[in-house]
Write a structure and sequence with these properties.
Layout: E1 5-11, E2 16-27, H1 31-35, E3 42-54, E4 58-79, E5 85-107, E6 110-132, E7 137-147, E8 154-166, E9 170-181, E10 184-185, E11 195-196, E12 199-210, E13 217-225, E14 236-243, E15 246-253, E16 260-268
Parallel strand pairs: 6-14
Antiparallel strand pairs: 1-2, 2-3, 3-4, 4-5, 5-6, 6-7, 6-8, 8-9, 9-12, 10-11, 12-13, 13-16, 14-15
Length: 270
């Protein structure tokens, strides 16, 4: 593959800069795709334009992007000659959006940070295949301009980072972050009955870091994840079939842990 990348940065002033970049990427089909007779590689053209601002107290970054796919490999429900589900190439699809990131130093030891991503993730034309147990074959349905599965249009986070104290050989950090993930579709048909609901989850983390003459870095970390005991599932899948003349649809989810305490120790020897 030929995967060129190019870009430039224009410094308006010490605090402001603009950038523009282009990248081409290709990816071959995997082994399962080859076994199913699919050998066309995926291709992607990515164009990004952004603005950065940095001062003593404020950091801002705005990024606009457009990712144009050719022959993206996706699941459509189609099966191969032995009944296993197979990915297929869809001609045109894209991801486009804006990413906003920012941080503000409330105090020399306290920083507020936030980010927001708004996007559209679309397949321009798609054929959905549905198992028909009555006839022993598959039905197909044509769709246009559908959402790419597992691709929320809105993702956001905000939190506080605090340097509790700092000594010559040690420091203690505290972080609180809340994350929001918007609605996602379990398949590529934009069917409102096949979704993962939006969710909000919050975590807190405390990290104590120190070093000795023989060990460059030792980190002891305590994290309390999902502090509000939210029931949520960030991923899943969907299965559909016809039986007795009726369409049955089943949504399967991968639920995550509720409130959970995790302790970790990281020792860097070099």
């Amino acid at each position: 593959f030929f995967n060129p990348k190019a870009g430039f940065i224009y410094n308006i002033a010490d605090e402001n800069s603009l950038y523009l970049s282009y990248a081409r990427a290709n990816r071959e089909a995997n082994r399962n795709d080859f076994e199913n007779g699919v050998s066309t590689p995926e291709s992607l053209d990515d164009v990004e334009f952004g603005w950065r601002y940095k001062s003593d107290k404020i950091k801002l970054n705005t990024n606009l992007y457009y990712m144009n796919y050719q022959n993206q490999l996706v699941n459509t429900g189609k099966i191969n000659d032995v009944g296993a589900y197979a990915r297929v190439n869809v001609g045109q699809s894209y991801r486009a959006g804006i990413e906003l990131q920012g941080a503000y130093s409330i105090h020399k030891k306290v920083q507020f940070f936030a980010n927001l991503s708004l996007s559209r993730n679309k397949i321009k034309a798609l054929t959905e295949y549905i198992d028909d147990y009555d006839m022993g074959n598959q039905r197909f349905v044509q769709h246009a301009n559908t959402d790419i599965s597992m691709s929320p249009n809105v993702v956001a986070a905000a939190g506080l980072h605090t340097l509790v104290f700092q000594r010559a050989k040690a420091h203690l950090d505290f972080d609180f972050v809340t994350k929001y993930v918007g609605k996602q579709y379990l398949d590529n048909t934009s069917n409102e009955n096949r979704i993962i609901d939006a969710f909000v989850v919050s975590d807190i983390k405390s990290t104590y870091t120190w070093h000795t003459k023989t060990i460059p870095s030792i980190k002891l970390q305590a994290a309390l994840n999902n502090i509000f005991n939210t029931e949520y599932a960030p991923s899943g899948y969907n299965y559909n079939y016809y039986y007795g003349g009726q369409l049955s649809s089943t949504n399967m989810y991968y639920p995550q842990a509720k409130r959970m305490l995790m302790l970790s120790l990281l020792i860097q020897l070099k």
